[in-house]
Write a structure and sequence with these properties.
The complex is a heterodimer.
Chain A (H helix, E strand, L loop, with lengths): L31 H7 L7 H10 L8 H4 L10 H4 L3 E7 L4 E4 L8 H15 L7 E4 L2 E8 L2 E7 L5 H19 L1 H10 L12 H14 L1 H5 L2 E2 L5 H15 L5 E8 L2 E7 L7 H13 L7 E6 L10 E9 L2 E9 L5 H17 L2 H10 L13 E8 L4 E3 L12 H15 L7 E5 L4 E6 L3 E7 L5 H22 L8
Parallel strand pairs in A: 6-13
Antiparallel strand pairs in A: 1-2, 1-5, 3-4, 4-5, 7-8, 7-11, 9-10, 10-11, 12-13, 12-16, 14-15, 15-16
Helix pairs in contact in A: 6-7, 6-8, 8-11, 10-12
Chain B lengths: L2 E10 L5 H10 L12 E10 L2 E10 L9 H5 L4 E7 L3 H17 L5 E7 L11 H10 L3 E4 L8 H15 L7 E3 L2 H6 L33
Parallel strand pairs in B: 1-3, 1-4, 4-5, 5-6
Antiparallel strand pairs in B: 1-7, 2-3
The chains are: A alpha+beta, B alpha/beta.
Keywords (chain B): Nucleotide-binding
InterPro entries (chain B): P-loop_NTPase, Small_GTP-bd, Small_GTPase
GO molecular function, one term (chain B): GTP binding
């Protein structure tokens, strides 16, 4: 088996940062300063912004909280306790910021308990990681100036839960920047962050559902929309053509239906999949982008947690629901980018790329059975060097509910990456299915088989599967990493 | 027939219905639960007033406090501000006063102010009386209108008033573009918040803008 040298989806250069699973999610880089230094024309209005923040610091919190439904008294009722996974965010001072279910104000006492636990352990120069009680895991992430806690019965591993908490933290940074977040709490420890995060609850809710149901967060990778290589290249070059003269444009991202179509980037800079997931989440959760062109600040914490990029966000056209984001470090170039977008759309229309995108969006995709692998129910293939993954569409018995499949994958993934005893290869058979998980230098593969398959047949099939993916790689992966 | 192109900024507290108001007018649609605007959205529409054509370039800003720092980008160089509040929320009305102060402090060019009380369909839950709103609007020299984006009551009138207001601004401000015919106006439909720099208007029928970049930050 180890003689196999196929590594589908690999490419010498990648627009996405190469990720190893469970890589250090704390790491953040500072790319904005670099770019700004190359093109120093940008006025730094940061200080200006801060002045405005301070001015309104002392306003009383709007009486939203009072209005917030008297009827949903979640406090300790059965429904609330029965939830599979709770997520809470609070400040170091114990002020409630976010609760996945229920009204934070009514749960103030609970936030108090969490804060006490954290500070009690801290007082002996230690940091609380987790508490385990039967099937319930309490996982803590203390990340100044916030505390994030999850209480989960989902059987996900502690490290998987911690990644999700990190994503929630990143989502908050995405909205505010880390610099501003720190500054706020430096100035006032007991600040009520909810007033700056109104509307963000939805994004966090959405992100949590996304990270639970989609393999992309677990894998640290993105899925591409299947397209002929020539079409993808034409799209990329239409974007480069229209944008090459615009300075300080950092990324152009075209996506549809949670899948990447293309990513064009500034030379030297790559996008981290975790940042791209935040962008996917923003686009999916914001219906308002559909109606018009928008201009929005956003911080990509893995790219640079200290400052904002500005994004021109729009859907290509009424008849093609792919979303284009042009991200720049300049805050006042909306119209330049708006014009570039028009040019891109015209070019794509002329070269029939809009139709190609629509066609790919409307075809349901291939199941593994229809590709000739009858014994394989489903699989996940991640190419490490390009941080992309591919999965076939669901086939029975997982079409009704995806949950068991997700659980199988999460469990297998945890077995491979268990920090105390990592595995390279695993084959496991149960009454319901058999799973093979394989971690190599170049890729990660998880295959779910019919339960009666024997080991040698499984290994043979995996070899055939890899060859099949290799043959289709140009269509399934974004193999080149175009730059402006 | 004259064609003028004016910039309009929508300001107001979160959830008062700024986006609902614009989409009601521009697309004639209403969604009860629109997701909050992220950053700001850009719309254009044409309004005929007193035999003239007025193109409105509308910046629909997000009402959430965290986007407040972005607002100057949109209201600097604007020719009109649509200050929207929710008739059933005194808080949202108070927030208008804050916006007015900010505009007065930061904008030098003359600007038309139009105050709009939205959600008149919820008249029975009203917290801001007509008299109160009128009195304040007179004190700041603004037009005051009430409407409902939900039932499409009074929405058309707002944009009519805006167009008329902009026509009256002709000659008073350098940021308002006036063309003698349609083609010229169309050619610069997407052109930015101009001002001090000389502009060269391309004459082309297609309504694609030409490419001089204009910085929001540097004028005024």
């Amino acid at each position: 088996m180890s003689t196999l040298e196929v590594e589908p989806g690999a490419a010498p250069e990648s627009g996405l940062v190469t990720t190893d699973t469970l890589d250090n999610f704390d790491e953040m880089s500072c790319s904005l300063e670099e770019i700004k230094n190359i093109n120093p024309s940008i006025e730094d209005e940061e200080s200006n912004d801060n002045a405005i923040i301070n001015e309104h610091f002392d306003e009383t919190v709007s009486n939203d909280n009072e209005v917030a439904s008297v009827d949903d008294d979640f406090e300790l009722n059965k429904d609330w306790i029965g939830k599979d996974k709770h997520v809470f965010v609070l400040s170091m001072a114990g002020k409630p910021i976010y609760s996945r279910y229920g009204n934070e104000d009514k749960l103030a006492w609970l936030f108090g308990v969490m804060q006490t636990l954290v500070s009690f352990i801290q007082s002996s120069d230690d940091c609380i990681q987790s508490i385990h009680a039967g099937n319930t895991h309490f996982v803590f992430l203390v990340k100044k100036p916030l505390i994030l806690v999850t209480v989960s019965k989902t059987r996900e591993s502690e490290s998987q839960l911690r990644i999700q908490l990190n994503y929630v933290f990143n989502q908050i940074t995405n909205i505010l920047t880390l610099t501003r977040l720190n500054k706020i709490y430096e100035q006032r420890q007991n600040y009520d962050l909810r007033r700056l995060l109104s509307g963000v609850e939805r994004l966090i809710d959405h992100l949590l559902t996304f990270s639970e149901n989609e393999p992309s967060v677990m894998l640290g990778a993105v899925q591409c929309l299947p397209l002929a290589a020539s079409v993808r290249d034409t799209i990329s070059s239409a974007i480069t053509g229209a944008c090459s003269k615009i300075k300080n444009l950092v990324f152009a991202i075209l996506l549809a239906n949670n899948k990447l179509i293309t990513l064009v980037r500034m030379k030297k800079y790559c996008l981290h999949p975790a940042d791209l997931h935040l962008i996917f989440n923003l686009v999916q959760a914001s219906e308002s982008f559909k109606n018009s062109e928008s201009w929005t600040p956003l911080c990509l914490p893995r790219f640079d947690a200290s400052g904002f990029l500005y994004g021109h966000v729009s859907y290509l056209s009424e008849d093609c629901q792919a979303c284009l984001l042009l991200l720049t470090v300049e805050r006042d170039v909306f119209f330049t980018l708006s014009e570039a977008k028009q040019k891109i759309v015209e070019k794509l229309r002329r070269s029939n790329c809009l139709e190609a995108i629509n066609e790919s969006l409307s075809t349901p995709g291939e199941s593994s059975a229809s590709a000739g692998f009858v014994e394989i129910r489903h699989y996940l293939y991640k190419c490490k060097s390009t941080s992309q993954f591919y999965q076939p569409i669901l086939s029975p018995p997982y079409t009704q509910t995806k949950e068991p499949l997700t659980r199988i994958y999460k469990r297998a993934h945890h077995r491979l990456h268990n920090s105390s005893r990592p595995l390279k290869l695993m084959f496991e058979r149960s009454a319901d299915e058999a799973i093979l998980a394989w971690d190599t230098k170049g890729f990660e593969l998880f295959v779910v088989f019919e339960p009666l398959i024997d080991t040698s047949a499984a290994i043979m099939l995996v070899g055939r599967l890899l060859n099949w993916i290799k043959k289709k790689e140009e269509r399934l992966f974004h193999l080149n990493a175009p730059t402006f | 027939m004259k064609h003028i192109v004016g910039k309009v900024v929508l300001l107001g507290f979160q959830g008062v219905g700024k986006t609902a108001l614009v989409t009601r007018y521009v697309e004639n649609s209403f969604h009860r639960q629109i997701a909050p605007t992220v950053g700001a959205s850009f719309f254009t529409c044409k309004v005929e007033a007193d035999g003239n054509m007025v193109t409105l370039q509308i910046w629909d800003t997000a009402g959430q406090e965290r986007f407040k720092a972005m607002a100057p980008m949109f209201y600097r160089n604007a020719n009109a501000a649509l200050l929207v509040f929710d008739l059933t929320s005194q808080t949202s009305f108070e927030s208008i006063k804050m916006w007015v102060q900010e505009l007065k402090g930061n904008v030098d060019e003359p600007m038309m102010l139009c105050m709009v009380g939205n959600k008149i369909d919820l008249n029975d839950q009203r917290e801001v009386s007509r008299e109160q709103a009128l009195a304040y609007s007179q004190s700041i020299d603004a037009t005051y209108l009430e409407c409902s984006a939900k039932t499409d009551q009074g929405v058309g009138l707002i944009f009519q008033k805006l167009a008329q207001g902009l026509l009256r601004l002709q000659g008073l401000t350098s940021t308002l573009k006036v063309y003698d015919d349609d083609i010229m106006a169309n050619s610069s439909e997407l052109e930015a918040t101009d001002t001090a720099n000389e502009e060269t208007v391309n004459v082309s029928i297609g309504s694609i803008a030409h490419g001089n970049t204009v910085n929001f930050g540097k004028c005024c």
